[in-house]
């Protein structure tokens, strides 16, 4: 939905330009400690979205995440999902979002290396494999996000969210260029390791914030993310989170999170969410009936406490003209209204070899979907 996001952003920028209320200039230190002028926009994309200051400051650990997590959909969910869970502790109506400025790339790599088990050197191949399976490197990455509050003409750091990304499958080699081996990591083992890691990461984050800002015991929200396997078309999910308030030295109670991403069509979708599976199948069958060059459909259902929260659908098709794009989109629009209920968010992208041809989207509670066809 990237092109859709651009459209929405342009609309918001137009509204902002027409408003008599000016965007607020604020002063904040840059990465070298000098003062710079930043702007807080008047508008956010929705009530649950944070405003983001301009000019945009990238993370102090920029680029590290793509080196540590192989699956792009996991990266997206780790970043977006952490912001989503942060809204429970840091109100988007009060606070401004910024990428993490306190954990550098070096600090992130040091944490990952020091908090993963050391694998002892062995001579025999069989012993090397056994050693790796006994000591899997579960900890993939730590993602930092910051939340700021405007005070007079300045912004101050008021909280930090930390996402700890953990493997569900450990991939390793016993020699450079050798075959890959895989070790499944159970959810219980991952949670046990993740909670230990979280204590160490909390201490490091607070130390960095204190050294750079002089703020003691900054409030921190920590969430544990379980990655999917590297080739998965749908991402992993957050499995637990905790809030450490100002003045609290250690992590207390963890909240278990019941959410998952499910691919449609799949045996898992059929077994666990049969009614949704049947609706998806009906939609797919009716598309195929009228469009012979239709090449399949893939969906990602996001479930929270077993309830469908969002359905994202990708429909790849080979088109031979703009009229066919319009006809296909019109037909798909009617099927969306007919088949899919409106108690969850729904988005559909029609794609070809040239990119996105059209989008259909509807927010939960809305009666009518919105459509855009790209020329």
UniProtKB/TrEMBL annotation:
<feature type="signal peptide">
    <location>
        <begin position="1"/>
        <end position="22"/>
    </location>
</feature>
<protein>
    <submittedName>
        <fullName>CamS family sex pheromone protein</fullName>
    </submittedName>
</protein>
<dbReference type="InterPro" id="IPR011426">
    <property type="entry name" value="CamS"/>
</dbReference>
<keyword id="KW-0732">Signal</keyword>
<dbReference type="Pfam" id="PF07537">
    <property type="entry name" value="CamS"/>
</dbReference>
């Amino acid at each position: 939905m990237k092109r859709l996001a651009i459209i929405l952003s342009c609309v918001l920028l137009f509204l902002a330009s027409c408003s008599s209320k000016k965007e607020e200039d604020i002063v904040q230190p840059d990465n070298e400690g000098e003062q710079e002028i930043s702007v807080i926009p008047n508008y956010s994309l929705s009530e649950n979205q944070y405003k983001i200051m301009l000019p945009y400051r990238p993370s102090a650990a920029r680029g590290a995440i793509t080196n540590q997590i192989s699956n792009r959909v996991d990266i997206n969910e780790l970043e977006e999902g952490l912001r989503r869970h942060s809204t429970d502790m840091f109100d988007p109506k009060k606070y401004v979002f910024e990428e993490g400025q306190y954990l550098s790339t070096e600090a992130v790599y040091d944490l990952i290396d020091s908090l993963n088990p050391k694998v002892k050197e062995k001579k025999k191949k069989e012993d090397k494999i056994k050693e790796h399976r006994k000591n899997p490197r579960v900890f993939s990455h730590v993602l930092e996000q910051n939340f700021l509050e405007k005070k007079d003409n300045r912004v101050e750091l008021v909280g930090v969210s930390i996402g700890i990304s953990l493997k569900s499958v450990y991939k390793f080699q016993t020699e450079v260029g050798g075959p890959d081996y895989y070790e499944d990591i159970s959810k219980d083992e991952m949670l046990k390791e993740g909670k230990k890691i979280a204590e160490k990461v909390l201490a490091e984050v607070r130390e960095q914030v204190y050294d750079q800002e002089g703020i003691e015991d900054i409030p921190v929200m920590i969430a544990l993310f379980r990655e999917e396997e590297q080739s998965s078309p749908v991402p992993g999910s957050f499995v637990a989170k905790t809030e450490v308030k100002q003045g609290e030295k250690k992590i207390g109670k963890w909240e278990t999170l019941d959410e998952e991403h499910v691919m449609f069509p799949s045996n898992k979708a059929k077994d666990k969410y049969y009614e949704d599976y049947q609706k998806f199948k009906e939609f797919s069958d009716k598309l195929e009936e009228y469009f012979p060059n239709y090449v399949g459909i893939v969906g990602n259902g996001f479930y929270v406490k077993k309830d469908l929260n969002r359905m994202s659908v990708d429909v790849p098709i080979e088109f031979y003209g703009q009229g066919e794009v319009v006809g296909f989109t019109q037909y798909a629009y009617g099927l969306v209204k007919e088949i899919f209920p409106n108690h969850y968010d729904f988005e559909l992208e029609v794609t070809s070899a040239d990119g996105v041809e059209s989008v259909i989207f509807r927010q939960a509670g809305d009666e009518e979907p919105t459509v855009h066809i790209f020329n």
